[in-house]
Design brief:
four-stranded antiparallel sheet; ten-stranded mixed sheet; alpha+beta; 30 strands; disordered C terminus; [histone H3]-trimethyl-L-lysine(4) demethylase; histone H3K4me/H3K4me2/H3K4me3 demethylase activity
Length: 1270
């Protein structure tokens, strides 16, 4: 039979694994108590001893012979067993109907009848499912694909196989039910679990076998030897006519022998069976219908093949229309057979015994055959998954054997024991007394089981376990919820699963929920160690499960009330025992209460154990005394309440008895099976029957006054017993409370350090148990001493610092670090003692924390303020603590100063020169690395690189020959202007570009609007262009103009200037401004009047420079002509005055010797010559040119003869050529003015000739004509 495909097994998480050191391994219970907070959360844990801990195997192998248990794997699993029980009931039902149950196939899978039946019942039953057409829904729930009409097949199979059984279960009288089978259906072989429990297998049976669940032929019932079955061909007969029918092929029903009861009485069921046996009936008229009590219609009268009762076919409900074929059971027999009470499930014992050698051979052979590989090569993961597959399948049976619960007392423990048969070598003698020797662990001083007088196998005496592959131990908790420890001596691993004790009730509720049928017939199923459930199933229902693989040489410990189970990976040998520590005592008492509620017997009396410990109070360990006192307090309080209760009920008789002298069966409560020790109640009507005080009313129906209380101790004796324990534990308890109050800081006021020393001394003198509390107190005291010493050293150091440095901060290398100070202050807060220096130290720490907080804030800032950094450094001067932030703060201060200098320099680009940048970079290189510094350095270095490149580039542009054009320089200048730095070459370039632009603008403005530029302006522009390293396109044209002007001036100079003349061309062409400046003047009064005449003209045109300046500034030729006319007017006036002055000196005088004339400034003498223009006289000897004059020719003195006098026709081309040059210059204006004067003079002369005026003045013309050559 198949089920819906199960998910592959997923291993639960691993439990903790501990590897103690030799020091930790020395004390088992101390180490277990140490790991308990961790391990009890998983329920189980594994301990690997130190590698060198290898006890010898001391078991008597030759004498060890055991009978193992038989385990059929799929019968172990709770849900699988429920299905098997259901199928057995179905098979029996149909067998009693004379039919053989065969399981149909659906979609090539064997139909799960249990699931089908369960789903139909959940949906409301067969009629409701048919009425509401839910068969498709049920098929989907069973895992079949929708849309294949599987629902109709399920309905057919249900109606054919399960529906008659359910009708019968509901109490309906069934007609002859027939079961038609398909040829493809496989016959089901029932397990018959209850009836097989006491059957011993034959010696020849194969123990480890793997077989298919479905077989075509197998006898369900077997005939006991010597038993003769009824040879009647058919019990179903027609009265008066006997029809022989062939025996149908069916599953035979066997009857299993039942063990006789202890008293030889028959059970109720056996009585019923015997009463049903009737004497043979040979006469037909003795058969009467059990419904109508009438023997008529004999041909319709049916005989039951079970009890021989008769029934009319028409009296049955519903009536039968035909005589059924095969065996037939009446409704009464059917109800009796199917309604037999179920028998509790248990393991069978094997039919043979094994030695270790024979069992090992069988186990190894089984595993190697099963996996078809050597046993040591089978992975543990594969065995684990296969195990959980096998226990969950119904189709496949695998049977194994397990040598469990073998008493070590009989065959010897695997550990060496004193006075044992095993001879221990001297080097291994320490294993005899080792605490991890399982023979020693239950009776160690720290174990409370040592106070139980009886030797309890499995609890005080170890049990041995010999396992094979797949042999398992089912879910269970230890008796009395105690600890257990298991050691695997050798062999293949043992796989464990465990749940923490806190989840015990949850695990129980989940198993009851998932397999309620098992718990209905066997409420204490989990106490029988016969049921397992897949860990994945439990985990899916919220139960935390953990696993581990226990290898040889490893311990596994289970904690109180921790459910655990597992299986063996192969042939191995393990040993286990229980133990109980002080922390278990309240748990053990709760377990007794739980047992009382379940009506489960106790292995030992918890009250007796407690009282035995109390009787030894004088020598008891104080820590154990405290635990016993707490347990006794609860025990005495409950006993007082119970005795008071039964007293109120009317129980007045009492008697003191020694319960410890009575066997356990005589002092067990007949109601809850609790072992009575402190008290019990009996009644004379029920000798040998006792109840505990909780179940007084369940003893008998006699009046309460007839009951008798039997007690071990009076209440006064109990109080005295508890007082003795209290006296022993009081000092320790008081000390314990004080220490706890100190360590847990429950008091309002801290204790002094001296009191802590007193408590430590008290623990040592009174030999209190060395536990974590004592160690913690010692540690606290030592730390407090260290704190006090540190405080004193700190204060002393501060005083020395002030003394040496006069109140300032000393660079003392022994300064307290911040961590030390913080640790010191934390110890002040954490220790239960006060230090007088605490306020000062806390204030110092507060200031240090504030300093560090501010430091962290500033240090985390990319660019902290230098002022804040300096302030923080100033604060550190008042902290006598080694501050690790100080070097960083100093570094950041240097960085901040540098960054500030960089920022200031960058904010004034006009002053940020290359030298400044190089200096800042050199300073930054010496700073500690920081992102802000690196960024600023990168920016500064980039700026320096760019600046240097542009400086070099600009210098090349400026010094380039030929010069670059303005566009190139201007473009370069546009790029340079974005560089925020002072770059001399770039500034020079800017100045050059500015000058070039200005020069071009001026050059363009000179000729703007047809204006004729001045020569001075052109000369100035050309001169300025020489200082501008730019290619100026108009410059060549201007230079050409100037060259033309120079050529013109040279031509004009050749025309007008005398050879070796000292006069310039402008002096020659321009009217004279210095007439008379070269002549000697007399000191006469007349001579004194001359300067007054000369000073009359405007002082602005007193010199040639003034005239030249005014001409250069004149805007056009007309204004220049006006200026020259003004100068000419002034010249004429001065000249006339000079002539008058010179002529007045030549008048006859009284003394001529005083007159100075000529260039020699001597008195007139000899031949003299007079200048025609200025009328000055000269010695002919002084004037060489005067001797060459012809008569009538006008002579001019050297001062008046300033230039040549070219003809006008030679002068006019000069003016024309100047006009073509289109450049104004003073000489040109003067030439133009000269020509205009000449032309005007010619015009006047022509006019005078025309008018006859010339003739009138011809005589005087020669004297007055003046030709100006300037």
């Amino acid at each position: 039979m198949s089920q819906p495909q199960l998910n592959e097994f997923i291993p639960p998480p691993e439990c903790p694994v501990f590897e103690p050191s030799w020091e930790e391994f020395a004390d088992p219970f101390a180490y277990i108590n140490k790991i308990r907070p961790i391990a009890e959360k998983t329920g189980i844990c594994k301990i690997r001893p130190p590698p060198d801990w290898q006890p010898p195997f001391a078991c008597d192998v030759d004498r060890l012979k055991f009978t193992p248990r038989i385990q059929r794997l799929n019968e172990l699993e709770a849900q699988t067993r429920v299905k098997l029980n259901f199928l057995d009931q179905i098979a029996k039902f149909w067998e009693l109907q004379g039919c053989t149950l065969k399981i149909p196939h659906v979609e090539r899978k064997i139909l799960d009848l249990y699931q089908l039946n369960k789903l139909v019942n959940e949906e409301g039953g067969f009629d409701a499912v048919c009425r509401e057409r839910r068969w498709t829904k049920i098929s989907v729930k069973m895992g079949f694909a929708p849309g294949k009409a599987i629902g109709s097949h399920l309905r057919t199979h249900y109606e054919r196989i399960l529906y008659p059984y359910n009708l019968f279960q509901n109490g309906a009288n069934l007609s002859r039910a027939t079961l038609t089978n398909d040829t493809k259906d496989k016959e089901y072989t029932p397990h018959d679990l209850p009836q097989r429990q006491s059957v011993q297998p034959q010696e020849t049976c194969t123990i480890a076998r793997r077989a298919k669940r479905m077989k075509s032929e197998r006898s369900y019932f077997k005939t006991e030897p010597g038993e003769v079955r009824d040879k009647r061909p058919n019990l179903r007969r027609r009265m008066g006519t006997y029809v022989a029918k062939p025996e149908p092929v069916r599953m035979a029903v066997t009857k299993v022998k039942r063990e006789p009861s202890e008293h030889g009485d028959l059970t109720e069921y056996e009585d019923t069976e015997l009463n049903m046996i009737k004497s043979p009936h040979n006469r037909v008229d003795q058969y009467m219908c059990q419904v109508c009590n009438n023997g008529s219609a004999e041909d319709r009268l049916l005989l039951c093949d079970g009890c021989d009762d008769s029934y009319h076919t028409f009296c049955l409900i519903p009536p039968l229309h035909d005589i059924p074929k095969g065996d037939w059971r009446c409704p009464r027999c059917l109800a009796q057979e199917c309604g037999k009470p179920p028998v509790a499930f248990g393991f069978e014992q094997a039919g043979r015994s094994y030695t270790l050698q024979s069992f090992g051979d069988m186990a190894d052979s089984f595993k190697s055959d099963y996996f078809n590989m050597p046993v040591h090569m089978v992975p543990t993961e594969l065995v684990e998954k296969e195990f959980w597959r096998l226990v969950s399948t119904i189709e496949e049976d695998v049977t194994v054997e397990y040598g469990a619960d073998i008493a070590s007392k009989e065959f010897g423990s695997g550990f060496p024991v004193k006075n044992g048969h095993f001879e221990v070598p001297p080097e291994d003698e320490h294993y005899l007394s080792c605490g991890w020797n399982l023979n020693n662990m239950p009776v160690l001083d720290a174990s409370v089981l040592t106070h139980i007088t009886a030797d309890i196998c499995g609890m005080k005496l170890p049990w041995l376990y010999v396992g094979m592959c797949f042999s398992s131990f089912c879910w269970h908790i230890e008796d009395h919820w105690s600890y257990s420890i298991n050691y695997l001596h050798w062999g293949e691993p043992k796989t464990w699963y465990g749940a923490p004790g806190s989840s015990a009730e949850h695990l129980e509720s989940v198993m009851k929920k998932l397999a309620p049928e098992l718990f209905e017939s066997q409420p204490d199923l989990l106490h029988q160690l016969v049921t397992i459930m897949n860990p994945n199933t439990l985990m899916n229902n919220g139960v935390p499960i953990y696993r581990t693989n226990q290898c040889a040489g490893e311990f596994v410990i289970t904690f109180p009330r921790a459910y655990h189970s597992g299986f063996n990976q192969g042939f191995n040998f393990a040993e286990a025992v229980n133990f109980c520590t002080m922390d278990w005592m309240p748990i053990g008492r709760n377990c007794v209460t739980h047992y009382r509620q379940l009506n489960r017997y106790c292995v030992f009396s918890h009250d007796e154990m407690t009282c035995n410990m109390a009787a030894k109070a004088d020598t008891m360990d104080v820590e154990l005394a405290s635990a016993v006192q707490q347990d006794m307090t609860v025990m005495v309080q409950q006993e007082e309440e119970l005795r008071q209760k039964i007293k109120k009920l009317g129980v007045m008789q009492s008697r003191q008895v020694d319960y410890e002298n009575l066997p356990d069966e005589e002092r067990q409560c007949s109601k809850c099976w609790t072992t009575c020790y402190l008290s019990g109640v009996t009644c004379a009507c029920s000798p040998g029957k006792t109840v505990c005080l909780y179940h007084t009313q369940n003893l008998c129906s006699c009046p309460q006054t007839s009951l008798e209380l039997k007690f071990k101790f009076t209440l006064d004796e109990l109080h005295r017993l508890m007082a003795s324990v209290k006296l022993r534990a009081e000092s320790y308890k008081e000390w314990l409370c004080t220490v706890k109050e100190i360590l847990e800081r429950n008091g309002n006021k801290k204790r002094g350090l001296e009191e802590l020393h007193s408590l430590v001394e008290q623990a040592e003198t009174k030999v209190f148990p060395t536990n974590s509390l004592v160690d913690q107190l010692r540690t606290v005291t030592i730390e407090a001493d260290k704190v006090a010493v540190m405080a004193q050293q700190l204060l002393n150091g501060k005083r020395q610092t002030r003394y040496r440095s006069g109140g300032g901060k000393s660079q003392n290398q022994n300064e307290l670090t911040v961590e030390e100070l913080r640790s010191f202050v934390q110890q002040l807060d954490s220790l239960p003692c006060t230090i007088r220096q605490a306020p000062l130290l806390k204030d110092l720490l507060m200031r240090v924390d504030d300093f560090q907080q501010r430091s962290d804030c500033l240090l985390s800032d990319e660019s902290p303020s230098p002022v804040e950094l300096q302030d923080l450094l100033d604060v550190s001067l008042g902290l006598d603590v080694e501050l690790p932030q100080l070097p960083l703060l100093r570094e950041r201060l240097e960085q901040a100063h540098w960054l500030e200098a960089v920022q200031q320099a960058s904010s004034w680009p006009d002053s940020l020169c290359l030298d400044t940048m190089r200096r800042l970079i050199d300073q930054g290189v010496g700073l500690a690395p920081h992102s802000s510094v690196e960024k600023a350095m990168a920016r500064l270095q980039e700026l320096l690189t760019v600046s240097e490149q542009w400086e070099e580039k600009v210098l090349g542009l400026i010094k380039a020959r030929p010069y670059h054009g303005l566009e190139t320089l201007d473009a370069a200048l546009q790029e340079v202007e974005n560089i925020p730095a002072y770059l001399p070459n770039c500034l020079q370039l800017k100045d050059v570009v500015t000058k070039a632009k200005k020069w071009l603008h001026e050059a363009e403005a000179l000729q703007l609007g047809g204006r004729i530029p001045l020569l001075d302006s052109l000369s100035e522009l050309v001169l300025r262009a020489e200082g501008i390293p730019v290619r100026l396109d108009p410059l060549s044209r201007l230079e050409a103009l100037i060259s033309d002007v120079q050529a013109w001036k040279e031509s004009a100079a050749k025309t007008f200037l005398l050879k070796n003349s000292t006069f310039s061309l402008l002096e020659v062409l321009c009217p004279r401004c210095d007439v008379g400046s070269g002549h000697q003047r007399s000191r006469s009064k007349k001579a004194k009047d001359a300067p007054q005449i000369i000073k009359k003209p405007s002082s602005k045109l007193e010199s040639l420079c003034d005239v030249e300046r005014v001409l250069s500034e004149s805007r056009d030729t007309a204004s220049a002509m006006t200026t020259l006319a003004e100068v000419h007017q002034r010249e004429m006036e001065m000249l006339l005055a000079l002539r008058a002055s010179n002529e007045s000196r030549l008048l006859p005088a009284e003394n001529c010797s005083t007159l100075c004339v000529c260039v020699c400034q001597k008195a007139p003498s000899g031949a003299m010559v007079q200048c025609e223009l200025c009328r000055e006289v000269f010695h002919c000897g002084c004037m060489d040119a005067a001797s060459d004059l012809e008569y009538g020719q006008a002579w001019l003195c050297p001062l008046c003869q300033r230039s040549r006098k070219p003809p006008l026709d030679k002068v006019l081309p000069l003016l024309a050529s100047l006009q073509r040059i289109r450049v104004r210059l003073p000489e040109g204006d003067a030439l133009r003015f000269l020509i205009e004067r000449t032309v005007r003079w010619q015009h006047r002369v022509q006019q005078a000739c025309t008018d006859g005026v010339l003739e009138k003045v011809s005589k005087t013309v020669s004297e007055n004509l003046f030709y100006k050559n300037s």
